[in-house]
Amino acid sequence: MADPRDTTDRFLPRFDAAGLVTAIVVDVDTRALLMVAHMNAEAIRLTQETGQAHFWSRSRSALWRKGETSGNGLSLVEMRVDCDQDALLLVVRPAGPACHTGRRSCFYRRVERDGSLTFLENDAQG
User: Fold this and answer.
1) Does any domain span residue 100?
2) C-alpha dihedral (74, 78, 84, 86), degrees to nearest 10
3) Is residue 52 assigned to a domain?
Protein backbone atom coordinates (compact mmCIF):
# COMPACT_ATOMS: atom_id res chain seq x y z
CA MET A 1 0.00 0.00 0.00
CA ALA A 2 1.31 3.45 -0.86
CA ASP A 3 2.34 5.77 1.93
CA PRO A 4 -0.06 8.74 2.17
CA ARG A 5 2.98 11.04 2.23
CA ASP A 6 3.41 10.30 -1.49
CA THR A 7 0.14 11.99 -2.45
CA THR A 8 -0.87 14.32 0.38
CA ASP A 9 -0.88 18.10 0.18
CA ARG A 10 0.37 18.26 3.79
CA PHE A 11 4.01 18.73 4.79
CA LEU A 12 4.79 15.65 6.90
CA PRO A 13 8.56 15.20 6.93
CA ARG A 14 9.75 11.62 7.34
CA PHE A 15 12.54 11.99 9.88
CA ASP A 16 15.14 9.24 10.27
CA ALA A 17 15.88 7.49 13.57
CA ALA A 18 17.99 10.49 14.63
CA GLY A 19 15.14 12.91 13.90
CA LEU A 20 16.75 14.30 10.73
CA VAL A 21 16.02 14.76 7.04
CA THR A 22 18.63 15.43 4.38
CA ALA A 23 18.64 18.97 2.96
CA ILE A 24 20.09 19.63 -0.48
CA VAL A 25 20.93 23.31 -1.02
CA VAL A 26 21.08 24.96 -4.47
CA ASP A 27 21.66 28.53 -5.67
CA VAL A 28 18.48 30.19 -6.99
CA ASP A 29 20.29 31.93 -9.85
CA THR A 30 22.75 29.31 -11.05
CA ARG A 31 21.08 26.14 -9.72
CA ALA A 32 24.56 25.08 -8.61
CA LEU A 33 24.65 22.50 -5.84
CA LEU A 34 26.04 24.37 -2.84
CA MET A 35 25.89 21.93 0.05
CA VAL A 36 24.12 19.01 1.68
CA ALA A 37 23.20 19.18 5.34
CA HIS A 38 20.64 17.82 7.78
CA MET A 39 17.59 19.41 9.36
CA ASN A 40 15.52 18.47 12.37
CA ALA A 41 12.02 19.80 13.08
CA GLU A 42 13.40 22.89 14.84
CA ALA A 43 15.75 23.73 11.94
CA ILE A 44 12.84 23.46 9.51
CA ARG A 45 10.65 25.65 11.70
CA LEU A 46 13.33 28.31 12.11
CA THR A 47 14.14 28.29 8.40
CA GLN A 48 10.48 28.80 7.54
CA GLU A 49 9.98 31.49 10.20
CA THR A 50 13.14 33.53 9.57
CA GLY A 51 13.82 32.90 5.89
CA GLN A 52 17.42 32.00 6.79
CA ALA A 53 18.67 28.42 6.44
CA HIS A 54 19.13 26.59 9.72
CA PHE A 55 20.55 23.09 10.05
CA TRP A 56 21.39 20.42 12.61
CA SER A 57 25.08 19.69 13.04
CA ARG A 58 25.53 15.97 13.58
CA SER A 59 29.16 16.45 14.65
CA ARG A 60 28.39 19.14 17.23
CA SER A 61 24.87 17.94 18.12
CA ALA A 62 23.67 21.51 17.81
CA LEU A 63 21.34 23.69 15.80
CA TRP A 64 23.09 26.31 13.64
CA ARG A 65 22.18 29.07 11.21
CA LYS A 66 24.31 29.14 8.09
CA GLY A 67 26.38 32.31 8.23
CA GLU A 68 26.09 32.93 11.96
CA THR A 69 29.87 33.20 12.25
CA SER A 70 30.99 33.81 8.65
CA GLY A 71 28.24 36.18 7.57
CA ASN A 72 27.68 33.95 4.52
CA GLY A 73 24.03 33.21 5.17
CA LEU A 74 21.57 31.47 2.91
CA SER A 75 18.29 33.29 2.32
CA LEU A 76 15.48 30.85 1.58
CA VAL A 77 13.67 31.39 -1.71
CA GLU A 78 11.81 28.08 -1.83
CA MET A 79 11.67 24.81 0.10
CA ARG A 80 10.62 21.62 -1.67
CA VAL A 81 10.13 18.11 -0.37
CA ASP A 82 10.69 14.88 -2.30
CA CYS A 83 7.99 12.30 -3.04
CA ASP A 84 8.18 10.40 0.25
CA GLN A 85 9.12 13.47 2.30
CA ASP A 86 12.49 12.25 3.57
CA ALA A 87 14.62 14.84 1.75
CA LEU A 88 14.33 18.58 1.26
CA LEU A 89 15.53 20.87 -1.50
CA LEU A 90 16.35 24.39 -0.34
CA VAL A 91 16.59 26.94 -3.12
CA VAL A 92 18.55 29.84 -1.66
CA ARG A 93 20.20 33.16 -2.35
CA PRO A 94 23.69 32.85 -0.86
CA ALA A 95 25.34 35.88 0.75
CA GLY A 96 28.80 34.53 -0.04
CA PRO A 97 30.59 31.19 -0.24
CA ALA A 98 28.50 28.26 1.01
CA CYS A 99 31.43 26.04 2.02
CA HIS A 100 33.28 26.50 5.31
CA THR A 101 36.51 26.34 3.23
CA GLY A 102 35.57 29.62 1.54
CA ARG A 103 34.56 27.95 -1.72
CA ARG A 104 31.29 28.70 -3.50
CA SER A 105 30.18 25.07 -3.18
CA CYS A 106 31.12 22.19 -0.90
CA PHE A 107 31.42 20.06 -4.05
CA TYR A 108 34.72 21.39 -5.39
CA ARG A 109 36.52 18.08 -6.01
CA ARG A 110 35.82 15.34 -8.52
CA VAL A 111 36.52 11.72 -7.56
CA GLU A 112 38.59 10.00 -10.26
CA ARG A 113 38.42 6.31 -11.08
CA ASP A 114 41.79 5.72 -9.41
CA GLY A 115 40.49 7.24 -6.17
CA SER A 116 42.35 10.52 -6.50
CA LEU A 117 40.62 13.88 -6.26
CA THR A 118 40.76 16.63 -8.87
CA PHE A 119 40.12 20.17 -7.66
CA LEU A 120 37.68 21.99 -9.93
CA GLU A 121 38.89 25.43 -10.99
CA ASN A 122 35.46 27.08 -11.11
CA ASP A 123 35.02 26.47 -7.39
CA ALA A 124 38.28 28.08 -6.28
CA GLN A 125 38.48 29.80 -2.92
CA GLY A 126 37.80 33.46 -2.63
Assistant:
1) no
2) 10
3) yes
What CATH number corresponds to the domain at position 42? Answer: 3.10.20.810
Cα(125)–Cα(114) distance, rounded to whole angstroms?
A: 25
Report how many domains make up the chain: 1
- With CA atoms as reference, report the closest residue to 84 among 23, 19, 14: 14
From residue 100, give the alpha-carbon distance in Å to each of 3, 38, 90: 37, 16, 18
pLDDT in tens, 8-21: 899 999 999 999 99
The string of pLDDT tens digits covering residues 27-73 is 999 999 999 999 999 999 999 999 999 999 999 999 999 999 999 99
Distances (CA, A) of 117 to 99, 108, 111, 120, 121: 17, 10, 5, 9, 13
